[in-house]
Amino acid sequence: MEVSDAYINSFVQPRNELFVEMEQFAEANHVPIMQLAAIDALNQLLRIQQPTHILEIGSAIGYSALRMAEALPKTHIVTIERDAERVALAQTFLARSAVHDRITLLEGDALEVNVEPYGTMFDAIFIDAAKGQYQRFFEKYERYVPSGGVIYIDNMYMHGLSDLALQEVPRRKRTMIRNLKNFTDWIMQHPHYTSAFLPVGDGLLLCLKR
Q1: Which CATH number describes the domain made up of 5-209?
Q2: What is the DSSP string of 67-110?
């Protein structure tokens, strides 16, 4: 039996005024941020894991970094965003938050940025950037995750496109969806990770390093 989105969303936790403002801004300006039920689920998993250092690939306007920082008062987050306009917006929102001192925002392409000056080991990595590049992001950064660390990956549904046959996907998105499906097959068979799919929000993948 399927559970309705309305029922799941009835459990969404209340947010402060800044977060509500960011959600409204993202909706009005078509900025992709994590769905509310999914960020609640992610934060609960992180509370259980209790990471001290998190690396986020894809800051957008800083929403998920701020949500994670608020949920984890002893955690430092390094987050990467390549879009200069979104970096500027993220900086503005971060400056208004009491948790901004535990967030380091880096501007640049995550496939080119050197994170080692900001940390050589991260207990958790959260990937929420270009969907067609997930495997490249994973391969670049998984070396910084210790045994027992977790890589969390959002948008595995890709708004329902992942469930379609490739010929049914709009032509301009076929390469991205092909790469996403190939990545899913690859990670589910990866000898160094135990992975599981959480059907919340737009689909959350959890990869536990052995």
Answers
A1: 3.40.50.150
A2: HHHHH-TT-EEEEEE--HHHHHHHHHHHHTSTTGGGEEEEES-T
